[in-house]
Amino acid sequence: MRKFLFSLVALLLCMSSYAAVTINQSGGWFESAYVEWAPLSGYSDYNAYIRPQNGTYQLLDKPLLRSYGSYYRADALGLAAGNYQIKIVPVQNGQEVSAQAAETSTLQVAAHDRNGFAHFNYSAGVGAYTNNGTLKPGAKVIYVHAGNAKTVSTSVITNSNGATTTYTGMQAIITGYEKGYDTTPITFRLLGTINASDMDQLESSAEGLQIKGKRADSELNITIEGVGKDAVIRGFGFLVRNSKSVELRNFAVMTAMDDCISLDTDNDHIWIHHIDGFYGKQGSGDKAKGDGTIDVKADSKHVTISYCHFWDTGKSSMCGMKSESGPNFITYHHNWFDHSDSRHPRIRTMSVHVYNNYFDGIAKYCVGVTTGSSAFVENNNFRNCPHPMLISLQGTDTHNGATPQDGTFSGEAGGIIKAYNNSFSGSKTLVYYNASTAPVHFDAYLATTRSEQVPSTVTTLSGGNTYNNFDSNAQLIYAVTPDDPANVPSIVQGNLGAGRLQHGDFSFTFTSADDASYDLNQNLVAAIAAYTSSLDSIFGETGGSVTPPDTGSVLPPDTTHHPVGNYECVFTGGQPSSDFYTFTSANYSNSKGTATVNGVTYNWCVKMESATNISFTTDQEYTLFLAFDKATANIKIDGTKVVATNGTISYPLAAGAHALTKADSNNLYYINLYGNQSALRNTEESGLGFDGTSILNPQGGLVRLYTMNGACLGSTTSTVIGTENLPSGYYVAVTASGALKFAK
User: Fold this and answer.
1) Is this prediction's pTM over 0.90?
2) Per residue in 179-190, pLDDT tens?
3) What are phi and psi of 355, to 5 degrees?
4) Strands (E), 585-711
5) 20 to 30 Å CA-CA from 321: which of 43, 308, 615, 633?
6) Is 417 helix (H, G, I), strand (E, B) or coil?
């Protein structure tokens, strides 16, 4: 009996040691799928696989796996519509532990809605993806985050003979495509928040990141897409010029310099979808909420803007300047104009299809037409919109001819709106022209069928312009069956609706008072300012690759988890990448040798010569990390000669002013600082202990384990955390209240 009990206990212990990964949630979205799972005690690495129904598993790229502290997440992108499963497998000592793997249930993946002018008569697929949602043959995939936006690199064809040049940095790579020789499909997959200061450069001083072709309508095949639900561009926007086949999707733009996205000058087949557009840089007058959110101008054509979420934006979308000859052909569909003010869109010269959009509490006006433009406005849902449709200098725009007659939104000649089957609730002012009534002042022509043509006798009061009936010409427009306007609110607000995957990681609720207000919403301003990503680390990345949490989050402030880019300094292109350090009498070279840090090889260095001085000031204790091309290189740190071990130096610094100067002549390739403050030595506050082989966590709280260079190895709530499989070195175990530094 005793032997049986012993065997039973042993069996139970064995079973408990092989507990499977616990999946918290999973789902399918548009041509992608995701899974979130709980950290499994004893494991800091995982592999993720995806397979189509009855197919074979394919390994996901490592950066698609990320840590959010209390849970891990993987996203699979580039999937054709269908049913899939994702499998998560723990990894220990480089070996998969299949016995503890877990699979999701069947995940249903939907096809993106490719209705709209961007895809009309363009079978190749816009951007880096084919029309079935998979990557084009030979497409490149570049993963970009705050820690590597300056250092990602790839080769680009730069002359007619096929010669290539290696470009380093996200903007630099895109600039390489401006040469006009490379049309290789390329997608930049964005992870977490990327600030303007994280970028290698921003080619447009007015807007930010520039995507530009060599000449009008140059084919680029570029996609920029967010991974998961928390990709954010902050402090800059996008300028697209002379470009054909460009796609922007599944990310948010906050506090852009000017426009969030500006399609400016001779673009063709551009698809912008599932974007969260927020306030830009605040100015005066009509720029109190920033300038345009998504603007289409200067002969940009065959453009689709769909499933985007406009958050109280002031000037949502200008469509056309005065220089275009038209008709250009633009589509807006399934967008959620959420308490935004005006320009939904404001149209000049162009032919625009506006369907299945939700105009939700619009303070000023929705669709406005001028300068001979033609707009087909159908099957939209208007809620509490005082002016759903306006024609410049007539109808409601001039109070139906009453004095004064100045236009409320434009002083330009008018265009024509054809309206059909729209839904209205709440206040509105709308005057229709139709077959039975022909008022001099009207806001739109009301069609009785979708195919009805607007008679040429219907002209604008100012300019005598007519409707071009583009929507009833099968040679000019795609075939589409719009959704019932009554269902539009639930569609754009649903799981497969507008904005980012899962509606993003930003939450804000407007009140009924916001419906009629076009003032800057100070509560929304504060919420945007307070937003921080909960992304903790990226699998396969080292050096602390993401933006650190603020004080009050799970990690204590200023621990070893400093991101690459805050204090990291490299010398690509012969200039320092960080302005934290001041360089005096510094000369740079890319012909001296190389140094490799965290898997990245650098060939640019600063030469430590007699007059060279690198100065900086720290506000607390840090560990200074330096990398050279010689195993026993040396340098003076605050006047003290320090010799490298295996080409690197890790040196403790007190708070205060510091200087790096020449000891012997050597070449310095890399500088960084890592947290080393007193919290790391305060084991009482952390609640942790270390007995030489295990971390003791008696409270069972969440513990994150880091290397001394900031790489996250995983997290767990286990009370005893074995360290026997860790390589020799220094580590930091972090809790919500403190941290324990230990040696293995």
Assistant:
1) no
2) 999 999 999 999
3) -140, 150
4) 587-589, 595-597, 600-602, 605-608, 613-618, 622-628, 634-637, 640-643, 648-653, 656-661, 666-675, 689-690, 694-696, 703-707
5) 308
6) strand
